[in-house]
Automatic annotation (TrEMBL):
Protein's UniProt keywords contain Oxidoreductase: yes
Keyword Oxidoreductase: yes
Transmembrane segments: none
Signal peptide stretch: none
InterPro entries noted in UniProt: AKR (IPR020471), Aldo-Keto_reductase (IPR050791), NAD(P)_OxRdtase_dom_sf (IPR036812), NADP_OxRdtase_dom (IPR023210)
Domain NADP-dependent oxidoreductase residue range list: 33-303
Protein name, entry field: Aldo/keto reductase
Residue ranges that the Swiss-Prot or TrEMBL entry lists as coiled coil: none
SUPFAM superfamilies, sorted: NAD(P)-linked oxidoreductase (SSF51430)
Amino acid sequence: MTMQQRRVDSAKAVVATGPAGGSWSLGPLQVSRMGFGAMRLAAGAAFTDGPSRDRAASIAVLRRARELGVTHFDTAAFYFSPLRAANEMINAAFPEHDDDIVVATKVGPGRDASGHWTDPARPDQLRGQVEENLRQLGRDRLDLVYLRVFGSGSIGDLFGVLAELRTDGLIGNLGVSNVSRAQLYEAWDIAPVVSVQNRFGLDQRTPETLAVLEETTRRGIAFVPFFAMAGAAGGRGRSAETNPAVTEVANARGVSEAQIRLAWTLHQGPNVLAIPGTGDLRHLEQNVSAADIQFTHEELDALSR
Ligand SMILES: NC(=O)c1ccc[n+]([C@@H]2O[C@H](COP(=O)([O-])OP(=O)(O)OC[C@H]3O[C@@H](n4cnc5c(N)ncnc54)[C@H](OP(=O)(O)O)[C@@H]3O)[C@@H](O)[C@H]2O)c1
């Protein structure tokens, strides 16, 4: 697919059948609905804990994802363990510029060189965070940058800086993450938002997040949930299944419970994308094949109850 073919009118986001769940658009960029979250590439458990993962194995996971039709990779400069960094491995996995790959990154949170979390970035620190991502990913322009928000206050000062960096050409498209509906409106008034990345999953449906999802659907932009499989365990990673409906549907279909959670995510609307995180090749292949699961109305009712 050429660069020209994958650029679509953002008002007419394209959903197609095809590998990795068909496609949707992030602004002018078309991506597979089944994407990949790079947070688990650097260390097996949460990105701050656990032994560093094998670099060659993590790069092989990224390349296999691409082979399976995944074109949407979610990352951040703060996804690193003592020995590995997600951005560096994405850069190494795809050394030649591949126009079909869209790399989305986030700014706002910060970690020092030892991995300790620092306070969320002030507006004057955002350019440095964007440039850090450019250096690590080996790019002159970032496809998509999310402002990862903390708290419920105004985000205008921070988002305004990213809008300027977009005008300067360092960023192609903007998103917001961990936002309320009011914060989405505020960002929208400053510059176009192509995607919202919030916590959402089968057991993680707050009224506020449902309202944000509804708003993204109304505006025809992407909604990208995080922790769709990890659920309540969040950063600690996926643990034993706690939802009997998930277990029942998985057993009846002969697939894994993680696959049911991912497939449920993609059933929430054509603009809802998935970015499952794994450093495990077998899990990656299961995750991509979850995009082929088509639930019956009865199954969806049981899962969504
Ligand atoms: N915007 C934000 O604030 C924010 C916050 C957190 C994450 N994120 C993004 O969202 C992405 C997804 O979140 P996440 O990685 O934390 O959680 P997730 O995708 O919901 O779940 C990942 C966990 O599930 C396991 N797993 C993956 N595939 C599996 C399978 N087929 N069967 C069983 N277990 C499986 C992983 O372990 P293995 O590695 O062993 O497979 C890991 O423990 C991240 O990678 C990151 O890009 C964004």
